[in-house]
Specification:
The complex is a heterodimer of chains A (110) and B (114). With 110 residues, chain A is mostly beta strands. Helices cover 0% and strands 53% of the residues of chain A. Chain A contains no helices and eleven strands. In chain A, the strands form two sheets. In chain A, strands 2, 4, 5, 9, 10 and 11 form a six-stranded mixed β-sheet that branches. Chain A has a five-stranded antiparallel β-sheet with strand order 1-3-8-7-6, with no helix packed on it. In chain B, 0% of the residues lie in helices and 53% in strands. Chain B has no helices and eleven strands. The termini of chain B are far apart. In chain B, a hairpin with a 3-residue loop joins strand 4 and strand 5. In chain B, the strands form two sheets. In chain B, strands 2, 4, 5, 6, 9, 10 and 11 form a seven-stranded mixed β-sheet that branches. Chain B has a four-stranded antiparallel β-sheet with strand order 1-3-8-7, with no helix packed on it. Classes of the chains: A mainly beta (110), B mainly beta (114). Chains A and B meet through strand 5 of A and strand 5 and strand 10 of B.
Amino acid sequence: RKEVEQDPGPFNVPEGATVAFNCTYSNSASQSFFWYRQDCRKEPKLLMSVYSSGNEDGRFTAQLNRASQYISLLIRDSKLSDSATYLCVVNGRDTDKLIFGTGTRLQVFP
Amino acid sequence: DVKVTQSSRYLVKRTGEKVFLECVQDMDHENMFWYRQDPGLGLRLIYFSYDVKMKEKGDIPEGYSVSREKKERFSLILESASTNQTSMYLCASSLVSAGHETQYFGPGTRLLVL
């Protein structure tokens, strides 16, 4: 079983739609959770950290479910500029390292 | 703004060549990392370093070595390049413990080994 698993997509949604991605992780001791965004042929960049109580940043909402070991990302009112690959990131068994999921690709169309 | 730079965006090398990939960060970060990214496999950690002259193996260190002689610079060395090392190489840095701090990435080096 992979340490971090994501649906690769692609998710094709129209502008203005709401879309959600889930990610599962295998290490129940993980303490740090993040969503990174990676544009085509570019480097990953932090989108948001994920906190236990859930957190929101504008149109983006992140949730953590420790019991089921998954995190989610909700994007409301999708924009064309949201088209990218979203990487789920969790700290691993060696807690000083980050484990990256393979990413979920989102394509927003007009 | 944190800036992580990598010496080349694109490299083409021949099998057996020694390859040097350089990474420099300008934010006085303690930690630096080298990853490779391949389709369907995501980012995989090759080596990382918590301090000058210190290095730790990541998940896939075979065929690679690293050097950190100065805090701001972390080099990845392919001792004898092979075709299966064709990949996108990403350098990253973070201020403190990687598990709890954001990693900032360089723009990546696309390496093709012929």
